[in-house]
Amino acid sequence: xxxxxxxxxxxxxxxxxxxxxxxxxxxxxxxxxxxxxxxxxxxxxxxxxxxxxxxxxxxxxxxxxxxxxxxxxxxxxxxxxxxxxxxxxxxxxxxxxxxxxxxxxxxxxxxxxxxxxxxxxxxxxxxxxxxxxxxxxxxxxx
Length: 142
Known about the structure:
By secondary structure, the protein is α+β, with helices and mostly antiparallel strands.
């Protein structure tokens, strides 16, 4: 399940988020994807932390893109966007988990002609960012 009310509540009172992009490289330029994600967040009024910043809870938005090997001109791909932060167990607050996923977008996967891979990944990642922005705004109304 993705983007539930409980997950949205985990985004409340954030000082900002860092962005981490994991991609296979090649035509899917990691830096280009990173800049696109950060620009969309800033345009939505969400503060983007620098890589060396560690706000309370060390929150970060992870975009992960995986692809298959091209076969007959077709490539399989998967785009995942998730929000990760430090969490504590309620029954034992002294126990800290450093990287628990507390929000996740509805995943996107598919098959595309190799020539359309970059555009399709960017489109699907943008749609997932839209989900995150909506979830963030619901937990942090102005």
